[in-house]
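If I may wish for something, please sit down with the protein I am sending here and say whether tokens and residues agree:
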Amino acid sequence: MGRIEESVEVAAPRGEVYQQWVRCEDFPRFMRGVVSVDVSGPGGSTWVIETAGGRRHFEAVTTEVVEGERVAWDGGGGPVRHSGVVTFHSVDDRTTRVMLQLETEPQGLWEHLAEALGFVDRRVIDDLNDFKRHVEQDGGPAAA
């Protein structure tokens, strides 16, 4: 199992950044790695993502929520096996550090190779930077 830990600082207050993150159904609008997200009810969602190994579908279940501070999930035992947690930390009144910890279990030769070559980590970094740009440039919740 691979472990990825990345963070990004977003020029917005923690509450605004958190609210944008929990609106995961909006991720396909600005994250290149996310094709679609359908929220199926409290704590459940269906995802379609693009990976180095191609298009993948999975169900995710939110396992923990601390309002404004933390969200954890489990991607289940399907073709995209992973779990993660994202935390939100105030750097100052106008800046938030978003910290993501992701554990992945590659399936098949191509996914093992992609992880070994750092493609998965690169995708996570790109997605976090896409999120940062969305919140900072698109105006966050007020613009949605």
Remarks:
- The chain has three helices and seven strands.
- The beta strands are 2-10, 34-41, 44-51, 54-66, 70-74, 81-92, 95-105.
